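[Help] Beginner question about ligand-bound structures

Sorry if this is basic. My supervisor gave me a protein sequence and a SMILES string for zinc ion and asked me to "get the holo structure". I don't really know what that means in practice or what format the answer should be in. Inputs are pasted below exactly as I got them.
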Amino acid sequence: MVEKIYTIPINEAYDRAMTEDVVECPFCLIDEMLDKNETERVMGAAMMEPDVRIETNKLGFCRTHFDKMFKMGNRLGLGLILESHVAEVEKNVFSSGTLLDTQGKKEEEKLSSLAASCYVCRRKAEAISKMFGTTVFLWETEEDFRRKHKEQRCFCLNHYKTLLSCGRANLDKKQFKSFYDETRDVMKKYISSLGDDVSWFCKKFDYRYDNEPWYNAKDSIPRAINFLSGGINKQDE
Ligand SMILES: [Zn+2]
Ligand SMILES: [Zn+2]
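Answer (accepted):
No worries, everyone starts somewhere. Holo just means with the ligand present. The predicted complex, written as structure tokens, is below.
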């Protein structure tokens, strides 16, 4: 059973990725949307929910999300989250074993996991994994979505990998071959044009090309970075 809460944002991201001036990966658009929603949620309505607080106390946040939360300006809200999180960290840091005894390894593992976890990143990862499953299901069952999938302009390297793995895990052999071919075609076209654009960008630094047009090369550097490591263009920030 497909849930509408996933199909709607996927269709919206596919539509946007096909029509916006700047070429983006649809899953990077979804990632951006989830990031915004989850950060606003934890700093808003969910902040005082005891269940959420138990989780945020335990997991904490990564630097990226702390920075986003800090910039949102609700200093008291962030203070309250930190008050109980720091108390929990204090308890955990000194809870069991020390590096001086046989429990040393356990202590190291515990400290690593305390430093590495993030409540927002974990919520996002859970949501995006469901989104990939739903995407493959939509491709399998809806003609219109399949057309949109073929007409996508770009998948970033990381999301391309996840998309193929998800298709392989969920489709039968024959279906997967079509999915694989169609998804690879999008990728082939994009990498080839991106390579040309980056080359043209470099050529434009040569005075002999001064009077030539830029074609699609002007934003090719941020697009290449997005393609290789994920993320969307934020030239207005
Ligand atoms: Zn992406
Ligand atoms: Zn995070």
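A couple of things worth pointing out: Residues 4-229 form one domain. Residues 173-203 form the longest helix (31 residues). Feel free to follow up in the thread.
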